[in-house]
């Protein structure tokens, strides 16, 4: 028991040290990237620091499997150099028995990442996108999905337009039962339009069966209302900007994601991307365990046997390979090529089985 606690403490310290080092590197690189943005000349250095710190948790969350691989490499290489691994193996402990503590710590870290760190990443990444849009274009466009339908906002030099629709098609290109309220650049509302449907094309919105009311002061709105079979309105929105506005599942807390998926389904959008992300987050602890097992399969050896550099490089490359396979499976799941559960859970389970097979082969031949 004491030996297991010792291994767990060593592994946790290695993980925290690697995470701190990578956080500093990510923050410095992020600060350089923010200072090169087009809006960097119009904001203060404090705002750049704020943007960097808001974006850092998302990047750390992205490279967390690499943190786990490096922490495992640091743990077993340090134990090999101090001959602790030799003593442990001489006492009768097998390789899999030695890995119990790091695996349990990795699992607990995965639970903390999913339950505690995920909401933090969601909040900071959402705030980062809002500040970036504000600095870049004054917050020209936004999208919100609620029980009252879809809410869009588009803007230009002439003013802002608020759009509400009760539902849409799967990709957000057509809105149904839609209302447009246009505001002057430095004033209140100037026009209201209601339409049966609105399709977003390269030239803007194309409304069908629409009615327009002027809202200027002193004008009889109903008396001056106009009806149109079709009506075109310019727009600064694109299909990609609309998809990106609600498509970044990482900007939604895992606790709010199931309700958001239901709202997407009710509004007519496809929630497959969010379902894949939800299941991938739930499978995160297993994937972190797989990274520990993969790295230990190459580094749980004595340094005198040679080839330490090759072993470390092999562990890191295999970790990157498994991460790429996991990302590729998620893309296939988002595109509907494979089932959602298979896209999220198959890569970590396969990685664990691969690593256990490598450990057993090294242990028993």
Protein architecture, described:
- With 365 residues, the chain is α+β, with helices and mostly antiparallel strands.
- The protein has two domains: 2-136 and 262-364, no CATH class; 142-236.
- It is built from twelve helices and seven strands.
- The protein has helices spanning 2-35, 45-62, 64-81, 84-90, 95-98, 100-137, 239-247, 257-267, 272-282, 284-299, 308-334, 340-364; strands spanning 142-146, 149-156, 159-168, 174-184, 189-201, 204-214, 226-233.
- Helix 2 packs antiparallel against helix 6 and helix 10 packs antiparallel against helix 11.
- The chain is elongated, with a radius of gyration of 27 Å.
| Annotation, overall tally of beta strands | 7
Kindly report the spatial arrangement of strands forming the biggest sheet. 1-2-3-4-5-6-7
Element string (H = helix, E = strand): HHHHHHEEEEEEEHHHHHH
Total count of helical runs of at least 4 residues? 12
* Strand proportion: 15-25%
Instruction: Report the span from N to C terminus.
Output: 28 Å
**Overall SS class:** alpha+beta
Low-confidence stretches: none
Instruction: Choose one word for the global shape.
Output: elongated
Helix content: 55-70%
Largest sheet descriptor: 7 strands, antiparallel
> What would you report as the Rg, rounded to the nearest angstrom?
27 Å
Q: Mean of the pLDDT scores?
A: 82
- Counted up, domains total 2
